[in-house]
Design a protein that fits this description.
471 residues, five-stranded antiparallel beta sheet, elongated
Length: 471
């Protein structure tokens, strides 16, 4: 955590630009990886491992030195940073030694390396001491002013002087913030010791030398693991990565349902009481409003029926992801119309296959978001739409999800790679994108259209118990 950075120090917590660059060099020399606040929040919410020796750089109060000295050095070292701004100072309503301007903030906000956080409107000495109406103004007006001036959503808050209590924390959440940063004057703690994401701990820059051996990003990401894990509990989370809001449900055992006609996702899910969550599935024919005809072959254990794809569609699907599910594993293989349009053909790939369908495109392969060129001539891949997807993460857990905003496919793939997907494929999207969790759709901004196919998650199977032989 940093405050002012300038040519000559004025108070004890100031540092010079030269000292700041020496800090960045020291972090690099000691193998640290600078991360974004998005990455840290995902880690704290889900346990997704961070890079080795992660560090989050934060800068409070919006001094002009943040633009003149910090920002050029962050670009030089390619390190992300969080800048906490209170608009009252930028607008000239609150005095201070120096301040960034709105034009400078617009430049900062446009750079992917930069996250802008709200720091209240007027930077009260202690938000715990203000009344409810004042607290609401400090939280909501700051967010609104920053969003209006910068044209970006503001998802994070930084408590002035680190002061908060349960009332303040609840108000921060009610104001629409996803996470908040705090600080202590004594007994500083690392972020890993945070009580929750609405009180993320930080340490001051003066302690940098003492913590060079303390940073840890969680257990090593098991990138060598290529299997499937159907034993993890089912859990829902909402994260924001690369400015994209994602609703994810992970864990459990994957399955599909191919319905007899089109229904809302929650209605299809309701046909199987075991399902905890479901997302709209493969692409389907639009020739009639109630058709359940899929694009490509489909097999669902809900019906036990394999239906081959139409000969007119199959050649166009060559190379797209063929999804195969068995009681033990999930596979994603390039679809071959000559080999995979019969039950015997897909059983050659996965003998115990219970579910199969063709999705439209890979979003993530081997942990890497797919580039624009990989989508070829796929219609609408670069359009801004609500998107649905599913895949497996680096731990082998199945994950289903939707984007909570419109996004193109390559950008979504990059965000899903950051979210920890090992493989992700695109499901029917646009007006079809829908996710139901515990009986209810999580979509509120539009009414998703009915679909004939879903990908669902059952709870993990109960562990087998050993029985003692009868004496």
């Amino acid at each position: 955590m940093y405050h002012d950075i300038l040519t000559d120090k004025q108070v004890f917590f100031d540092i010079t630009a030269a000292e700041f660059e020496s800090h960045l060099q020291k972090l690099r020399d000691n193998g640290f990886t600078a991360i974004s606040l998005d990455q840290l929040v995902v880690h704290l919410k889900t346990g997704l491992p961070l890079p080795a020796k992660p560090v989050l750089l934060t800068f409070d109060d919006g001094y002009v030195g943040h633009y003149e000295h910090v920002y050029p050095l962050l670009k030089k070292y390619n390190m992300p940073g969080v800048f906490s701004i209170f608009p009252g100072k930028v607008d000239g309503q609150v005095g201070g030694r120096s301040t960034v301007t709105w034009d400078q903030l617009k430049t900062l906000a446009a750079d992917p390396l930069v996250t802008i956080a709200s720091h209240s409107v007027t930077h009260p000495a202690d938000l715990r001491a203000v009344d409810d109406a004042t607290l609401q103004r400090e939280l909501m007006d700051s967010k609104a002013r920053l969003e209006t001036q910068l044209g970006i959503p503001i998802h994070y808050f930084t408590y002035p002087v680190g002061h908060y209590d349960d009332r303040v924390m609840a108000a921060v959440q009610q104001a629409g913030y996803l996470a908040a940063l705090t600080m202590r004057n004594a007994d500083e703690q690392l972020a890993s010791a945070s009580k929750n994401v609405l009180a993320i701990e930080r340490i001051g820059q003066s302690r940098l030398a003492t913590i060079l051996d303390s940073a840890w990003g969680g257990p090593t990401q098991p990138t060598a693991f290529r299997g499937t894990d159907f034993t993890a509990p089912v859990a829902k989370t909402r994260v924001r990565l690369n400015d994209i809001d994602l609703v994810l449900v992970s864990g459990g055992q994957a399955t599909t349902i191919h319905a007899d006609t089109r229904y809302a996702v929650a209605a299809i899910k309701g046909r199987d009481p075991k399902l905890v969550a479901a997302v709209d599935g493969g692409f389907f024919s639009l020739k009639s409003l109630d058709s359940n005809v899929m694009i490509g072959p489909v097999l669902s254990q809900a019906t036990g029926q394999f239906i081959p794809g139409g000969n007119g569609d199959n050649p166009k699907l060559a190379g797209r992801p063929l999804v195969l599910i068995s009681p033990q594993k999930v596979m994603f293989v390039p679809f071959d119309p000559a080999k995979h349009n019969t039950l015997a053909g897909i059983q050659q790939v996965l003998p115990e296959v219970t579910d199969a369908f063709v999705s439209s495109a890979w979003l993530v392969k081997e942990g890497v978001g797919q580039p624009y060129a990989s989508f070829g001539n796929l219609f609408g891949f670069d359009a801004y739409r609500h998107r649905a997807f599913w895949g497996v993460d680096h731990a082998g857990r199945p994950v289903i999800g939707i984007s909570a905003q419109r996004v193109d496919s390559p950008a979504l793939g990059q965000a899903l790679a950051l979210a920890g997907f090992r493989t992700a494929v695109m499901l029917d999207s646009g007006a079809s994108a829908d996710l139901a969790y515990r009986g209810k759709s999580v979509v509120s901004s539009y009414e998703p259209r009915p679909v004939p196919h879903i990908v669902g998650l059952w709870p993990p199977p109960a562990p087998e118990t050993e029985t003692q032989p009868t004496p």
